[in-house]
Design a protein that fits this description.
The complex is a heterodimer of chains A (about 200) and B (about 575).
Chain A lengths: L5 H4 L27 H14 L14 H10 L6 H19 L8 H12 L9 H17 L11 H6 L36
Helix pairs in contact in A: 3-6, 4-5, 4-6, 5-6
Chain B lengths: L2 E2 L3 E6 L5 H10 L4 E4 L7 H4 L4 H6 L7 H4 L4 E3 L7 E2 L25 H4 L1 H9 L17 H16 L6 E2 L2 E2 L23 H12 L45 H7 L3 E4 L3 E7 L5 E8 L2 E12 L3 H10 L21 E2 L7 E6 L15 E4 L18 E6 L4 H5 L12 H10 L3 E8 L8 E9 L5 E6 L4 H20 L4 E4 L11 E2 L25 E3 L14 H17 L1 H5 L1
Parallel strand pairs in B: 1-11, 2-3, 2-11, 3-8, 4-18, 11-21
Antiparallel strand pairs in B: 4-5, 6-7, 9-10, 10-11, 12-20, 13-16, 13-19, 14-15, 15-16, 17-18
The chains are: A mainly alpha (about 200), B alpha/beta (about 575).
């Protein structure tokens, strides 16, 4: 252990020539699904109200946000899986109570009313509604705008939406210019084959 | 039974920003040094990635396993029950927090070292913050200056001098103390947004500059220049252009063959003999207990752990904790953001500012007009102020989580339209307030919450500070003025809030001449325990309005240099 020579551990490279592939990490495995098919459909319906498909581009589920959350709950976020599933079930139960239908079968404006009530802390009989709403919205942002490596941000839809030009290993002053569109580099930090789950 | 190891001259506890620097002058002086670090080596390729989920969401660079298990508890007054914080802001690794920090590498101002006497001289005692235990430092800026200079060159700092031996250069910070020579590297690259903010500050009659950074602006000592890729915050540098101690002073010390790095070793106690001298440290590695005998022990484990280790290390000679017979360990604690969050003024521009890439605060523009005692405080009701900084580097999840400025809903199609247009048009600012120690802020051991070894965690007691809150509000207004001058259409000022755990905390083993109000002397050695030295922000008496690391490193070098030059009298 002691006295390790740092030069063995560190690559000596200049910034401009580091190949992206050099950053490829050991692949995580997440073969098991955290959520049931019914739970995944419900989750997709929720995240698609946060980020709907419209003229600005695809919605959250089409962009892999559901996949990101499902995978996260199966590995890194496993400790919060029971609470998240409870939140999903409570959301559906509240939809049935307040709108007389399962959440997934409600029209968009009614789904929005359910979510708005949760956001406002006005969802009767669902004490943790606001906490679950905030957590689901936060995870939606992570999935939509995080690296595609984790299963979300498919086709770089999230980065294109906010006009983020993509991670790169080195940038020039031209990449930091104001008032010009920087050409997006559609590439994951882990190589162009973005998604480690396939 | 502990396994007894071969004795060394000096045991350094913690190989982060402080200990990682102290080992170099010791090793060069020929002393045999054991560098004992709870974390392990990190690998730039394996561990440092341009990936916000890895760095910022999951904190995979910054979450040291040891720190995670001993998160301090926090309460705002002695009547309140302390609760364990959600996360520890520090990490364990060879290089410590210097791996993921923003690397701004400031010298404190001459005023910071004698705030008390200068305040009395200029404004009278009435302007001293009420309830503060403020003292002048036992050393002046001029005494520390040679060590600032050494460290700037040893680790590598990029910047532009504003005061070269008294000669003022408006290209640098004209408010800095005099320095003996120019920085070893020019300032980091500027860019459109920074130039824009630079001009806006000048239009107000202010004197903007690019702050110094321990990041290579040009190749330096065999390592490349910064690539400005925009994942500096909470991540390590993938090309080793950030001058973390694991890339600079630690390997340099290893070359002498006098430093042995013991990584993955958690120090649990500093051991003292019956004569009141320390004899070494006990640590755990892989479930086994070891005792490392040492003639001198230097402790550089961050503010919370420095105090905790001393208080845990009880002995016959020190029944209430090592070096604590005067009851000063844990006292005079304070945090840099006792009155506010670090990032609390946001601005929205009507055009793309494109701040995605960069190197956090280190690629920024700073204003010192409203910090320290640069301006006249008569009638303001506070001393100090804040440095103002705006910067490059913004990550996509954070960009999409931007403040809405009351202009859009938080989700749905209208929100999509809003972030589509504005994620590239908003930014934040970083305001660092001059902060001071108080009677009612201290660290001790929590009576209930324990780590997995059964040792109590550190407990923080600290309430809101009136002086610092006023200074923060004043500085926020100046930041708004600056953003407005640059054309911002919306400016959002966060409410200053009370203290919290942070990476900029100070005190607990304050430096001073008087053992009744400090723990270590002007050299960083204990008043009570002659062969024990303390490294880090725990020795500070004031914070300055800027990042502490370079001052921590200059003090660490000075303490180690003093030890090497006075070896016989200190090691006995």
């Amino acid at each position: 252990m002691p006295g390790d020579d740092i030069s063995r551990r560190a690559v000596i490279v200049s910034a401009a020539i580091v190949p992206v592939a050099a950053l490829t990490a050991v692949s995580q495995t997440s073969a098991t699904s955290a959520l049931s098919d019914a739970q995944l459909r419900l989750l997709a319906a929720i995240v698609d109200r946060f980020i709907p498909k419209d003229e600005l581009g695809p919605g959250a589920s089409e962009s892999g946000v559901t996949e990101y959350i499902n995978r996260s709950l199966a590995d890194y976020l496993a400790p919060e899986k029971p609470a998240f599933i409870e939140g999903l079930e409570q959301t559906d139960a509240f939809a049935r109570r307040s709108e007389n239908q399962p959440f997934v079968e409600l029209p968009a404006e009614k789904q929005d009313a359910v979510l708005t009530a949760m956001d406002n802390g006005a969802a009767d009989g669902f004490p943790n509604a606001r906490a679950f709403f905030n957590r689901a919205r936060r995870l939606t942002l992570e999935g939509m705008f995080g690296d595609p490596y984790y299963g979300g941000n498919k086709n770089f839809a999230g980065w294109d939406l906010i006009r983020y030009p993509g991670p790169r290993l080195a940038t020039s002053a031209d990449d930091q210019k104001m008032g010009v569109e920087i050409k997006p580099l559609h590439r994951s930090a882990y190589g162009s084959g973005a998604d480690h789950g396939h | 039974m502990a396994i007894n190891l071969k004795p060394v001259d000096v045991a350094v506890v913690g190989l982060g920003a402080a200990g990682g620097v102290a080992v170099l002058p010791l090793a060069r002086a020929g002393l045999k040094v054991a560098g004992i670090e709870a974390g392990t080596w990190m690998d730039p390729v394996r561990d440092f990635k341009p990936d916000e989920i890895h760095n910022n969401v999951r904190s995979l660079v910054t979450t040291g396993t040891k720190a995670k298990k001993e998160i301090p508890t926090f309460r705002t007054s002695s009547d309140a029950k302390a609760r364990q914080a959600a996360a520890h802001p520090m990490m364990n690794a060879v290089g410590g927090t210097s791996i993921h920090y923003h690397a701004q590498s400031w010298r404190l101002k001459p005023w910071d070292f004698k705030t008390r006497s200068e305040t009395i001289k200029r404004y009278g005692v009435s302007l001293l913050p009420k309830g503060s235990t403020l003292e002048d430092w036992p050393l002046s800026y001029e005494e520390l200056e040679p060590f600032y200079d050494i460290v700037e060159h040893e680790i590598g700092v990029s910047g532009k001098a504003g005061n070269l031996q008294g000669k003022i250069d408006p290209a640098g910070n004209v408010y800095e103390g005099p320095r003996r020579r120019e920085y070893p590297m020019p300032a980091l690259r500027t860019c459109d947004y920074l130039d824009h903010m630079f001009k806006a500050a000048q239009s107000l009659g202010w004197k903007p500059f690019h702050a110094p950074a321990a990041i290579n602006s040009v190749p330096y000592r065999g390592r490349p220049a910064c690539a400005y890729h925009g994942y500096c915050d909470r991540g390590g540098c993938h090309v080793r252009a950030k001058n973390s101690t694991c890339f600079t002073t630690i390997p340099e010390a290893q070359k002498t063959k006098n430093l042995t790095v013991f990584d993955g070793c958690q120090v649990t106690r500093i051991v003292a003999d019956n004569n009141g001298k320390v004899s070494g440290v006990s640590y755990l590695r892989g479930g086994k207990e070891y005792f490392q005998p040492a003639k001198v022990v230097l402790v550089g484990s961050y503010t919370y752990e420095n105090t905790r280790l001393l208080l845990l290390s009880k002995s016959k000679a020190y029944p209430s904790g090592l070096s604590n017979n005067h009851g000063q360990v844990g006292k005079h604690y304070f945090g840099h953001w006792d009155a506010q969050a670090g990032v609390n003024v946001s601005a929205l521009f009507p055009f793309d500012i494109n701040t995605w890439y960069g190197a956090m605060l280190s690629q920024g523009v700073t204003i010192d007009e409203w910090a320290d005692d640069t301006f006249d405080h008569s009638g303001l009701g506070f001393i100090g102020g804040a440095s103002l900084c705006t910067f490059m580097e913004k990550h996509p999840i954070a960009g999409a989580s931007m403040p809405l400025f009351g202009k859009a809903p938080a989700w749905g199609s209208n929100w999509k339209k809003f972030v589509h247009e504005n994620a590239g048009r908003f930014t934040g600012a970083y305001l660092q307030t001059n902060s001071f120690p108080y009677e009612n802020t201290w660290l001790d051991l929590d009576p209930e919450v324990k780590d997995p070894l059964g040792d109590p965690v550190c407990r923080v007691t600290s309430g809101p500070k009136e002086n610092e809150t006023r200074a923060a509000l004043y500085a926020q207004d100046k930041m708004e003025q600056w953003f407005r001058a640059a054309g911002a259409v919306e400016v959002l000022k966060g409410q200053p809030f009370g203290p919290a755990l942070s990476t900029h905390t100070y005190g607990g083993t304050r430096m001073g001449d008087n053992p009744d109000s400090s723990v270590v002397d002007r050299w960083g050695f204990s008043h009570e325990t002659p062969n024990l030295g303390m490294l880090g922000g725990s020795a500070f008496g004031t914070s300055g309005a800027r990042n502490p690391t370079l001052t921590i490193q200059a003090l660490a070098w000075r303490t180690a240099d003093h030890l090497a030059k006075n070896w016989k009298s200190i090691a006995g």
